[in-house]
Design brief:
single chain; mainly beta; Pnp Oxidase, Chain A; seven-stranded antiparallel beta sheet; 5 helices
């Protein structure tokens, strides 16, 4: 099968979201004029090491984007297997004044370097200062870039000096309503490495 996105795919469900998979979930927490916000985004990733930088994309002007524009900061909470129910509950489309921390029963804590809440039991949280918001092609597509200025790691997720994904089992988005958890991990050496 071949199709041009501009012409449509002819399938009952759009395959694009399932092609780039699994995608990590950026569980974005913000604070704004109407209160705290917590929402998952599956167009999320790390984009640079030094300084560490991340990105996430928003389709539409959502509360997260509004709050980041107002404050210039956000936190990325990673989602492990133990946070699936809370993450899903926080994805509800609700009014801006609704606190998704309370709605989802996610435990809230304060960030250290930015005025923003974070998910207390997330395996890791990246405290970020927004560096750029880019309006992408299409209606209501925005790319948010941020520099990581503080990192929280749950102590029990560190084993032998490594932040060990086998302990917290990252959750990924596969497309449609499909998700996965990382349950098998192996190492590969690059050619030429000793």
């Amino acid at each position: 099968m071949f199709y041009r996105p501009a012409d449509g795919h002819g399938l009952p469900h759009n395959p694009f979201n399932a092609i780039v998979a699994p995608r990590p979930i950026g569980w974005i927490s913000t604070r704004g004029p109407t209160g705290d916000n917590l929402a998952p985004y599956s167009f999320f990733n790390a984009v640079a090491y030094v300084p560490p930088q991340v990105m996430f994309a928003s389709t539409g002007v959502k509360d997260s984007l509004t709050n980041i524009r107002a404050t210039g900061v956000f936190a990325v909470n990673v989602v492990g297997a133990a946070q699936i129910a809370e993450m899903n509950a926080s994805s509800a489309a609700v009014a801006p004044e609704v606190d998704e921390f309370a709605l989802s029963k996610a435990e809230r804590a304060e960030c250290e370097t930015i005025p923003c809440p974070r998910v207390a039991n997330a395996p890791a949280t990246l405290e970020c200062r927004m560096t750029q918001i880019v309006e992408l092609q299409g209606k209501g597509n925005f790319l948010v870039l941020g520099e990581v200025v503080g990192i929280h790691l749950r102590d029990e997720c560190i084993r032998n000096g490594r932040f060990d994904v086998r302990i917290w089992q990252p959750v990924g988005r596969l497309g449609y309503r499909d998700y996965c958890t990382v349950s098998e991990v192996w190492e590969l050496q690059r050619p030429g490495e000793g």
